[in-house]
Amino acid sequence: MYIQMIDWHxxxxxxxxxxxxxxxxxxxxxxxxxxxxxxxxYGKDFLEAAITLPLVLPPSVVGYxxxxxxxxxxxxxxxxxxxxxxxxxxxxxxxxxxxxxxFPLMYQSAKAAFKSVDVNFEKAARxxxxxxxxxxxxxxxxxAWPGILAGLVLTFARAxxxxxxxxxxxxxxxGQTQTIPTAIYFAVESGDNVKARTLVAIITVFSFFVIxxxxxxxxxxxx
Amino acid sequence: MLEASLTKKLWHFTLDVQLKADNQILILLGPSxxxxxxxxxxxxxxxxxxxxxxxxxxxxLYSSGExxxxxxxxxxxxxxxxxxxxxxxxxxxxxxxxxxxxKGCRQDGSALDPLELLDSFGVGHLIxxxxxxxxxxxxxxxxxxxxxVVQPNLLLLDEPFSALDRNTRISLRQELKKLHQQxxxxxxxxxxxxxxxxxxxxxxVTLESGQxxxxxxxxxxV
Lengths: 223, 222
Description:
The structure holds two protein chains of two kinds.
Chain A: H1 2-5, H2 9-38, H3 44-56, H4 59-70, H5 77-82, H6 91-115, H7 119-127, H8 132-161, H9 164-170, H10 180-189, H11 193-222
Chain B: E1 2-9, E2 14-21, E3 25-29, H1 36-44, E4 51-56, E5 59-63, E6 68-69, E7 77-80, H2 92-98, H3 114-120, H4 136-148, E8 154-158, H5 166-183, E9 187-191, H6 194-200, E10 203-208, E11 211-215
Parallel strand pairs in B: 3-9, 3-10, 7-8, 8-9
Antiparallel strand pairs in B: 1-2, 1-4, 4-5, 5-6, 10-11
């Protein structure tokens, strides 16, 4: 059976990495975006530029930067090693790479989403006695939700397709750190065209249906 | 009884107004850009004045001298926004109940039945609709119910008729006057329309680039 010949390891790992990275990016990104939109401080432009940088840098540069930070002799790598934690060449490094690379997408989407919410709704809620936390969860977040969802999908897609930075910090260890994109690259390299085609077909169909479903859902919400 | 003296430096002029009203309708009359909405924001606690005080029935909401500044949540001031600011993702019912679920608004136990209030405004049959499914006049009635259901001590109204056609405008003007007689709290209403001002105003304050001039135009009620 053809389906039994498929190596499921890279597929499952890619999904796991993308899901965890999306959760981290969402949990950190949405509150951070909100906070930055609300406050003005010296160096904010600098911070915003730094957050967006991985979007425009070649992934290999991001990967190199991460190696400098978490490598065996890296800035944080040493401290982590002292605690008995090694990140490089584990699948957690792939999660880290995907998180850093996809973060700007969530930041930009959430920023635009929050900006689109009319401040008068929040003001009205305030005059009705609602606390700031309640306003965030009952007014701001529901109204910004379509934009945040778009950010979520972009984040997931970017994390699923992450190649350059992942290869540099997580490597290509079959069964351990090999994701779909790295598996495709090395399958082509070694002339295993069946494996490459299978993975290409799977990731293309899967990504297509995720986007298709989300668009449909967003349309329904809009109506 | 409302008493306020407010100073706030804006980018192109300095706002400096004194307002005083018993349980009357006070009209802030002036062209756009004269700081009318800013005054309402200052009274609701959405902006902070540079100096001055706001007092309602001997309760100090803001005083620069005594360093008192209650947040909007605890001022118990109703605010009807210019475009009503009804939460678009909530039904009429959810909009009107929103303020009741917040703590700290109530001063006594006497609760007002929101559904009865909506009925009295003639919009009781619309409770399951969303704001986008309402006409301008219906939106205004729902927004009024939402602002009044928490039983505020002061009601602020920002250009309440600007989004309405002439007929709706005239009938709502009369309803508002009746409503004021029932509620017996000060209303502060922002308008650029002299006709509205003459019809509704007990006290009319004209604003010109932030300076207030009080015309004691007493209006005979209908």
